[in-house]
Amino acid sequence: MFRRVTVVLGVFIGFLFSVHYANADDLFVSDMGSGCIYRIAPNGTKSTFASGLNLPSGLAFDGNGNLFVADSRAGNIYEFTPSGSQSTFASGLNFPRSLAFDRNGNLFVSAVWASEIYEFTPGGSRTTVVSVGSAPYGPESLAFDQNGNLFFDNGTEDADPIREMTPSGSLSTFATLFTGTSGANAMAFDHSGNLFVSDNCIYEFTPGGSQSIFTTEVNGPEGLAFDESGNLFEADINSGNIYEFSPNGTQSTFASGLIHPVGLAFAPNPVPEPSTLFLLGIGAISLLGFAWRRRRGRARCLSCAAVVVAMLIAGSARADVFNMGGTYNQATGTWTGAASLQFVTVGNPGNAADPSTGYGSVGYTYQMGKYHNTLS
Question: 275-296 burial by CB neighbour count: b if 16+ within 10 A, else e?
Answer without folding.
Answer: bbbbbbbbebbeebbebbeeee
